Amino acid sequence: MVSGSWSISPQCVKVCMSPPKAQSVTASPVLTSYSVGQVVTYSCPTGSTLIGASTNHCLGNGQWLSSSPICGICSPPPFSGNLVYTPVQASYALSDTITYKCASGYTLVGNPQASCQATNSFAPSTQPTCSNTVCPQVPSVSGASFTPNVATTPNVAIGNTATYNCNTGFTLTGSGIITCSTGGVWTFPQGPTVCNPGCTAPPPITVGTGTVTAGTNFPVGNRVTYACTTPPTLVGSAESTCSASGWSTPPPECQAVCLRPTPAANVIIMPTTPTIPVSQSITFTCPSTHLFNPTGTSSLTCTAPSYVFTVPTTNTCLISKYVEFVLKYSTPGLTPLY
C-alpha cells in the first residue's frame, strides 16, 4: 500500500456445515455453512408432529449440539387387553415399526409387527390379539422337523398336538409328540425333546433270516448285535457300531455254509477260504517238522443242518522224533548224533 504496510490478513474460523435432518424434517435458515453460535429451527410438514428439540446450535468445534428431531405422522395405536407393544412413543415417523407381544400365559394371534405408513396409520391396520386357548409356534428342535408346519399353522388349539421327526443321522430323546395344554403352553410328557446326532435303525439281514438288537434310539457309540436263524451260519461281522458317519459295518449274511475253524498251533487247514459250502471237506495237515496226531481226524465235511465243523481235540501236530532228537542234542558244546 501507499503507507508501506500490509492490509489485515484473512482468518480461518470454525463453521458448521448443514445441520442433521431426519426424514421429512426441515431446518431453517438454509445456508452453505453456519457460524459458531448460529441457531437453526426445525419444522415438520402439515399433519405431522415434531418429536424432539425444535432448535439446534452450532458449537465452537464445528459440530451441532444435538441430533435431529423426527416428524411423527402416526399416532400410537391403542393398547388392548393383554396386548402391548414397543417402543411406546407420542408419535411415530414414516417407516417406524412397533412390535406386539402378549402378557405371560397368552399367545399372540396375528401379525407381530406393524409399520407407520404415509397414510398416517399403521399397517397392517388390524391389531393382533392375545389368546389363552391356542399355543404359540411349535418350539424348534435342532436336527428335527415337525408337523403341523408352523409356516401354515402358526397357532395350535388347546388339545391338539405337534409331532417331531428327527432328521437323518439324528435320534430322538424325549417325546416325539407334544400337546397344546390349558393356558396355551406346550407340554412335553417325557421332558425336553432332543434330536441327538446318531444313526437310524440298523440295516436288517437280507440274505437269509436273522435278528438285530431292537431299539428306537441309536446314539453315536451304540453297538448292535446280529444273529442268524435260518440258515444258522453268520458270515460277516456280528456287531456294528454307530458313528457320526453311520454304521461301522454292513449287515452280515445268513448262509448255508460252515465257517472255517480256527486251527490249533502248527496245524494247517485247507482250503483257506473263510466259508466252506455244504458237502465240501477241509483237511488237517502239519508242517514238515511235525507229524499229525494219528488219533486225530484228518478230514471233516460240512453237513446240514448243523453247518458246524466239530474239530476233535486230538487234531494237533506232534513234533517228529527226528526233530526232537536234533533239538535235544544240538546244544552248545555237543555234537549232533546223526
Structure in words:
The protein is mostly beta strands and 338 residues long. The protein has five domains: 59 residues, Complement Module, domain 1 (Ribbon); 57 residues, Ribbon (Complement Module, domain 1), CATH 2.10.70; 64 residues, Ribbon (Complement Module, domain 1), CATH 2.10.70; 47 residues, Complement Module, domain 1; 66 residues, Ribbon (Complement Module, domain 1), CATH 2.10.70.10. The protein contains one helix and 35 strands. The strands form 13 sheets. A four-stranded antiparallel β-sheet has the order 8-10-12-13, with no helix packed on it. Strands 16-18-20-21 form a four-stranded antiparallel β-sheet, with no helix packed on it. It has a four-stranded antiparallel β-sheet with strand order 23-24-26-27, with no helix packed on it. A hairpin with a 5-residue loop joins strand 12 and strand 13. The longest helix is centred in the last third of the chain and has 9 residues. It is elongated, with a radius of gyration of 45 Å. The relative contact order is 0.06. The C terminus is likely disordered.
